[in-house]
Design goal:
Layout: E1 9-15, E2 19-24, E3 31-32, E4 46-47, H1 57-69, E5 76-79, H2 91-98, E6 106-109, H3 118-124, E7 129-131, H4 139-145, H5 154-167, E8 171-178, H6 186-197, E9 203-208, H7 223-230, E10 238-239, H8 257-264, H9 271-278, H10 282-294, E11 298-303, E12 306-311
Parallel strand pairs: 2-5, 3-4, 5-6, 6-7, 7-8, 8-9, 9-10
Antiparallel strand pairs: 1-2, 11-12
Helix pairs in contact: 1-2, 2-3, 9-10
C-alpha cells in the first residue's frame, strides 16, 4: 500500500508535550509494527515490519513549504501520523531536507519497535528529539497491550531502546502508556520501571487513555493513580497534562471539510483542537462538524466530560 499524493502535512496542532506541532504523515493509514489496544486510530490494518518509500520526499517537502509560506507558526516539525513512521524508508533523507526549510526542531514520534535495526537507528539520529514508547516490562504484557508483529519480541525492542539511547545525541523523551487493568498493577509498573532504568533518558512521561479508542473499550488510569506511579520511575516520571500554553492559530486559509477530516484521520480531536489546527474560528468549525456528522463522516464521543470528534468512515 502506498500513500497517495493527498494531504501529508497537517496542523499545526496543539501537542501536550511539544507545543505547536506541524505534523507529517508518510505512512499509509494504520500500517504499523504494533496493534496497540489503546490506539486512538483503531485497529491496525497492515501489521508489518517492512520499510518502504511510501511517498516521494519531494512531495512532502512541497507541502511543508506551502504550509510554512502561509505563516504557520511552529515549535516543532513532527514526523508521526497514522502509522509507524520508522517504516518509511526515506526517513533519514526527509529529516535532512526538512532542515533546509525551517529552523524548528525535528521531532520523531515512534513506538520504538525498530530502533534495534541499524538503518532505523541511524535515520532517527537525524532528528533533534525522538519520543519512543515503552508500555510493557514483560513479554506477556507486551503481547496484551502492544500486540506486536510476530517477528518482534520485548527483549529485542527494549535492547534497541537501550542501545539507541547511548547512540543518539539529541533529546530522548520516553512515553509510558498505562491502561487500567492491563499494565497499571504494581508488578507491571515495576517491570516497566526496571526496563526504563536501563535506558539513558532524562524525561519519562506517563500517558493514559484520554481520547476515544475506536472499536475497543480501554479505560484510562486516574490522575491520582498516575501521580503515585510517577514516583516508581527513575528518573521520576511526569504525568502528561493537557496543553496549557498560550497558542494562537497561524493565519492561514480558512478551514474546510477536507482540513477537518485530515486532522481527524490522525486522531480524535476536540472542537478547540480542530479550530487551532485548521486556523478557522470555532463557530465555523462547529458548522463544518454539524454537516459532517449529518453525513455520517464524523461522530461525537464523550470521554470524561469532554466531547471528541471521531472520523466515522475512512
Amino acid at each position: 500500500m502506498e500513500v497517495g499524493a493527498g494531504r501529508l502535512v497537517y496542523g499545526p496542532v496543539a501537542s501536550r508535550r511539544f507545543g505547536r506541532s506541524l505534523g507529517i504523515d508518510v505512512v499509509p493509514f494504520k500500517a504499523c509494527t504494533f496493534d496497540c489496544v489503546y490506539c486512538q486510530l483503531g485497529p491496525t490494518t497492515e501489521l508489518t515490519t517492512e520499510r518502504r518509500a511510501f511517498v516521494a520526499v519531494e512531495e512532502v517537502l512541497r507541502q511543508v513549504e506551502a504550509t510554512l509560506s502561509r505563516g504557520a507558526e511552529v515549535d516543532v516539525i513532527t514526523v508521526a501520523g497514522s502509522g509507524e513512521p520508522t517504516l518509511y524508508a526515506d526517513l533519514g533523507k526527509l529529516a535532512m531536507e526538512l532542515r533546509k526549510l525551517s529552523p524548528a526542531p525535528l521531532l520523531l514520534i515512534t513506538n520504538g519497535s525498530l530502533l534495534w535495526r541499524e538503518d532505523v537507528a541511524l535515520d532517527a539520529c537525524n532528528f533533534d528529539i525522538v519520543a519512543p514508547d515503552l508500555d510493557a516490562g514483560d513479554e506477556a504484557t507486551f503481547a496484551v497491550i502492544n500486540r506486536p508483529h510476530p517477528s518482534l519480541n520485548l527483549e529485542q525492542v527494549a535492547d534497541g531502546l537501550k542501545r539507541f539511547s547511548r547512540l543518539f545525541r539529541g533529546k530522548l523523551r520516553l512515553e509510558v502508556f498505562l491502561a487500567s487493568g492491563l499494565n497499571d498493577s504494581i508488578s507491571a509498573v515495576q517491570n516497566i520501571a526496571r526496563r526504563v532504568k536501563d535506558v539513558a533518558v532524562k524525561d519519562v512521561d506517563l500517558n493514559t487513555a484520554a481520547r476515544p479508542t475506536p472499536g475497543r473499550l480501554v479505560e484510562g488510569v486516574s490522575r491520582a493513580r498516575l501521580d503515585e506511579i510517577a514516583g516508581m520511575f527513575e528518573p521520576k516520571a511526569s504525568v502528561i497534562a493537557s496543553f496549557s500554553g498560550g497558542m494562537e492559530s497561524a493565519r492561514r486559509e480558512g478551514g474546510s471539510a477536507e482540513s477537518v477530516l485530515a486532522m481527524l484521520d490522525r486522531r480524535p480531536c476536540t472542537l478547540a483542537e480542530l479550530a487551532l489546527g485548521t486556523g478557522c474560528p470555532g463557530n465555523e468549525v462547529a458548522k463544518l462538524l454539524d454537516e459532517l456528522v449529518k453525513r455520517d463522516e464524523v461522530t461525537r464521543e464523550d470521554r470524561d466530560g469532554t466531547t471528541f470528534f471521531v472520523r466515522g468512515s475512512r
